[in-house]
Design a protein that fits this description.
The protein is α+β, with helices and mostly antiparallel strands and 342 residues long. It is built from ten helices and nine strands.
Length: 342
């Protein structure tokens, strides 16, 4: 019984001591073994490891690639156009001894704070040496590479390797946004006014060309019309001349009948002529003289069809025939086309 009571506690103590001296190194971690604050060993390979219980302690650090967002900072490029940039970095711990000596017991938060200072300084230096157009262009990957290369040396002093640096966004300071928007609006309005002016100029040019074309077309049409009209007048005169040459007496009679029809048309036609006027030549010829002279119709009598009467106030002399014209015979209307056929 005494041996069992002694062995059992010894076994328990041995198990506790064994368990406290054994630790597991995860594949995602790196481990430092410290003894009274001094680095004794570093474990980077995954698996089981041992330490002295109660004397040594284990400090674990993440072995994966870590991300750090840099607080937005204001930079001034070469063209004095201030920008607010927001960047982030990817890093990993590569030297546990250097890392522990640099940050002490602060660990990763202390390292990230110092890394922020390094990256902010490098970002201001690199972006301040170029224009804002280069920062906003597709070549800014090269600028971020320069930031990374500039920060590598200082980061190694912390036992850190910077894997990559990238810009998330680039903005204008809030106080400059209104001025920038106003300038952009003015530029767009200027371009719009320029386009409108060019459009009006083109419209005026097209309108002037159209007016000129219209004038040319109308002038040419009038010229062609005058030519055709002149040819028609010439043809008409030729036909009249042929008709007159074929039968001058009939042509004279036809012209007189046409003059009577044109002068004595309407409901109330009045002519004041001399009794011996040549206008009534065909009323005085032998055939007309043997015919009874028609008397003037009373003023209240209705005129015959197609023959308007003379106004009642017109004087009628015995020697002058009545001015009331008889109906125009149908023969002259047919004769209009006869000279052309003769």
């Amino acid at each position: 019984m005494r041996k069992a009571s002694v062995i059992l506690p010894a076994v328990v103590v041995a198990i506790v001591i064994f368990l406290s001296s054994v630790f597991i190194v995860d594949e995602r971690e790196k481990v430092l073994v410290l003894q009274f604050g001094r680095i004794v060993d570093a474990k980077e390979e995954p698996g089981l490891a041992f330490k002295i219980p109660l004397i040594q302690e284990v400090v674990r650090y993440d072995d994966r690639i870590l991300s750090r967002d840099i607080d937005p900072l204001e930079v001034t490029p070469l063209n004095d156009r201030r920008l607010v940039v927001d960047a982030f970095a990817r890093y990993r711990i590569v030297d546990l001894y250097q890392f522990r000596q640099a940050v002490g017991t602060g660990g990763i938060p202390a390292a990230e704070s110092r890394l922020d200072s390094i990256l902010r300084a490098q970002t201001r230096e690199v972006l301040g040496s170029v224009t804002s157009n280069e920062i906003l262009s597709l070549n800014r990957d090269e600028l971020m590479g320069r930031v990374r290369q500039g920060a590598l040396a200082e980061a190694r002093e912390l036992g850190i390797e910077i894997v990559d640096v990238r810009l998330k966004r680039t903005d204008l300071p809030r106080e400059n946004l209104d001025a920038t928007f106003a300038r952009m609006r003015a530029e767009r309005e200027r371009e719009a006014a320029d386009l409108v002016a060019r459009g009006n100029e083109a419209a005026q040019r097209i309108r002037a060309q159209a007016d000129r074309t219209q004038v040319e077309i109308v002038s040419d049409a009038n010229r062609q019309a005058e030519i055709v009209r002149g040819q028609a007048d010439g043809e008409r005169n030729r036909i009249y001349a042929e008709a007159y040459g074929a039968d001058p007496e009939f042509f004279q009679f036809y012209r007189s009948m046409s003059a009577y029809r044109a002068s004595l048309k309407g409901e109330n036609s009045t002519l004041v002529l001399s009794p011996d006027s040549e206008f009534f030549t065909y009323f005085k010829d032998d055939g007309a003289a043997s015919a009874p002279v028609p008397m003037a119709a009373p003023a209240d009598a209705a005129p015959s069809d197609g023959a308007p009467a003379i106004e009642s106030g017109a004087p009628v002399t015995p020697d002058a025939p009545a001015i009331t014209a008889p109906e125009a015979p149908a023969a002259p209307a047919e004769a209009e086309t006869q000279p052309a056929g003769q």
